[in-house]
Amino acid sequence: MIREQALRFGPGGRLFGILAHSGSEPARKTALLIPNTGLDHRCGPNRLHVHLSRALAEAGFPTLRMDLSGLGDSLPLPPDVEADAVDDLRAAMDHLGSLGIASRFGGVGICSGGHDVHRLSLADPRIVASACIDHYAWPTAGFRLRYWSERLLDPRRIANPLTRWVRRDQAAEPAGIRGEDADLFVQPSASGFSRDLDHLMNRKVALFFLFTGDMLSAYNYRGQLTDAIPSLRRYAPLAVHFLPHADHTFTQVAMRQAFVEALSRWATRFL
């Protein structure tokens, strides 16, 4: 039976999360952390984090879905202090460790949450597993071949962008936040990410990557990541998934089930 427990932790108890667990997990078991996706509440888009944490707890992994500083029910830091997701996630690990729940941890993050999990994995040796969904992608020869083949076979996909470009009136564009200003993280270079992964692989950190159909303009086939980062091909505790029929926020039940099942299989196998 899955139990859920509300936790306050961190300096002054300013951070908040919900721990899903079976109530009988040994201290040696790996616990998993799920930070916010973008500015969403800890429940995640379409309650994805709720479904995910309960499924992982059922598979034997205590799982904390949490709000980072200033999000959801976690309090903001003082104006003169810059928030850092890594500090918040470390506070979560410290608290779970003090409760005797786990001494080893993994992170699961979607989009900006994946960026936070990646940074945490590099910063803290207690992390033994890193799962990142729809975060970093680099074009490869295979990507370009598929990208342009699809467009050349459908002339409308060329004509429509050209029409929009011709009609565009920069002066008429409304003022406001531009897309690039809304970015929640900066993608590293492929070479920089490859160095990061070398570090994680040397530590034997289990790795999970999943890309959805909303990434098709940047990621369009399953093997693109290993083509971009060839060193991953030799790494055993690795899972790479491509769900072209799923969207970024897993709006449909079947999409959420496919993701949850893939992640649970990976965690059960490697953790």
The CATH architecture can be named as 3-Layer(aba) Sandwich
Biggest sheet statistics? 8 strands, mixed
Instruction: Give the N-terminus to C-terminus distance in angstroms.
Output: 21 Å
- CATH superfamily (homologous) name: Alpha/Beta hydrolase fold, catalytic domain
| Helix content, binned percent | 25-40%
How many whole angstroms does the radius of gyration measure? 20 Å
The global form is globular
Q: What is the number of independent domains?
A: 1
Mean pLDDT: 88
- Elements, N to C (H/E): EEEHEHEHEHHHEHEH
Q: Structural class, please?
A: alpha/beta
What count of helical segments does DSSP give?
8
- Please tally the β strands and state the result: 8
Outline the low-pLDDT stretches.
169-182
Task: Tell me briefly what this model is.
By secondary structure, the chain is α/β, with parallel strands linked by helices.
Comma- or semicolon-separated keywords:
single chain, 271 residues, alpha/beta, Rossmann fold, 8-stranded mixed beta sheet, 8 helices, 8 strands, 19% strand
